[in-house]
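Team,

Forwarding the record for the chain on the shared tracking sheet. I've put the sequence and predicted structure together so nobody has to dig through attachments.
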Amino acid sequence: MNKKLLTLFALIVFVFSCSNDTVEFKKKDILGFWELVEAKRNGNKTDLLRGGYFYFGSTGKMATNFKGDTLNELFEVEGELIKTLGPENMTFKVKYISKDTLKLTSKIGKSNFDFMGVRFKERR
């Protein structure tokens, strides 16, 4: 009986330890220019964001054009979230980050957005 309980306990611990999908990163990891190569609105791919980008500067300023006009705001990183500090007050959740790929999600208005960007060494 004890062996079964121990096995069940180990299985429960394993399942809960694997369910953590939090992405850990530091602010320095997102710094730079990210060109959007794919975007989804409510789960459907959209070409409306073609040519879109995110730029995160070391001074805490960011720029993006995914809403059309260029938006410049301050930002901060809180855990897996990137939050703008200006009037737009947007929040982006980092779903994945590597040295050359960034995946973000956000809810803007009534729409859910998924963004995938690739890093450029220099801003164009």
